[in-house]
Amino acid sequence: MIKLKSFPRFMICAPSSGSGKTLITCALLRILERKGYHPASFKCGPDYIDPMFHKKVLGISGRNLDVFLMGHYGLRGALSRGAEGKDIGVLEGVMGFFDGMSTDSIEGSSADICSITGSPAILVVNCKGMSRSVIALIKGFCEYGRENYVKGVILNNVSLMVAGSLKKEIEKELGIPVIGFLPRLKNEPFSGRHLGLVMPDEIPQVLDIIDDVADRLLENLDFDKLMEIAADTKRILMLKDFDIPKEWKISGSKQKIRVGIAMDEAFCFYYEDNLELLRQMGAEIIPFSPVHDAHLPQVSRLILGGGYPELYAKALSENKSMREDILRAARGGMPVLAECGGFLYLQESLSDPEGKSFDMVGALKGNGNMRDKLHHFGYVTMSSTLDNPYLKVGEEIKAHEFHYYDTTDNGEVCLLKKPSGKFWSGYQVKEKVFGGFAHLYYPSCPEFVKRFLEC
């Protein structure tokens, strides 16, 4: 039976990165919680770090909405699964509102995701260095494109002396409501790193900061108008599970397959959809910490995700018993998946940002080190060119790369191809260890997960 659900929602978008989307999204999530709502959070694009900030506010994992990785149907499914048990959705946009996968298209942009999901947009405008020029900027975003998805505006970093009159002029000239404004803050609450924002646990009193911003925003927020905009959406089709054949689910056995997943300050980049698909196909996820735990838990599979192992290279190296456990498991034939930071950890050595080298696991060849610019960046379709336990030759899986670190041995098992046509080789295989830099989106190739669990 088809089940539809009314799910009020809105997207926080901006003219560009650095406008304050994440800060205001977190503040609005906190405000909604205070008022008794049960919000769900979503992040447009492949970003891992912004959903961590959402999780700090909500205590639940945020979901990504990504056109390249998921396609339209998969994106709607992710929205649907995230809406389960929630009464309102807050979507955070990616980059500038019309910035998509290429300069000749808005495909994959926040505007595109508004269209696919039927969600209204709230434009966050950083007013630093502007007064009436803000009106022209907003006018351009409202009039560009075939349809205007921008239904409200929040003025960020605005002087309280001009906020009231600026709001009046915007509404008079453009007919679009300014539903709130955030005054200039003395210090930048969230600082950045080469992958974007620093992680929330690295910011002292991050929850106090979010609460303070929520207080300031609430003083100048038309909450009723925000709810009115959020309610003007179509119902969504509720889809609890991924669309995979029932026979692929391995949960028919009495005992689930215990999959150890590295989850700590060094390894924390995981798509919620990946974890959900693993569970749906019969896995029990067992978190462990390569930084803090002395030994591996009782598991039969390992996944080492991305993160910032270079910042904890000394601690990872000094945890010799954990490194020995992982090396023993890898050499003993345990199925292991490692990507980006996890891939670097499995290699022979890793240099910290100061250039000091530390011994790592040694299950794969190579030495990791920092580069002065992005090595590979963007969406890729990864296909196997050599036999391996998880991907057949020519089989494809969608992924994303973004890393300043490189290694002396990237591997050559797979071909990674950007939408532009540029390509390179990557990924190593040794025994049943499969590792490389690309962040894989498992639902784009469920066969990959099935082989990992059955291997």
Note down, in words, how this protein is organized:
By secondary structure, the chain is an alpha/beta fold. It is 31% helix and 26% strand. The protein has 13 helices and 28 strands. A 7-stranded parallel beta sheet has the order 4-3-5-2-6-7-8, sandwiched between helices. Helix 1 packs parallel to helix 2, helix 1 crosses helix 7 and helix 5 packs across helix 6. The longest helix is centred in the N-terminal third of the chain and has 17 residues. The radius of gyration is 23 Å and the shape is globular. It starts with a strand and ends with a helix. 47% of the residues are buried. About 1% of the residues have low confidence.
Task: Give start-end ranges of low-pLDDT stretches.
Answer: 192-196
Q: What sort of overall outline do the alpha carbons produce when their principal axes are compared?
A: globular
The strands making up the biggest β-sheet line up spatially as 4-3-5-2-6-7-8
Rg on CA atoms, Å? 23 Å
Q: What class do helices, strands and sheet pairing give?
A: alpha/beta
The beta-strand count equals 28
Largest sheet: 7 strands, parallel
Counting H and I runs of at least 4 residues, what is the number of helices?
Answer: 13
Report the average pLDDT across residues. Answer: 92
Strand content: 25-35%
- End-to-end separation in angstroms reads 35 Å
Overall helicity: 25-40%
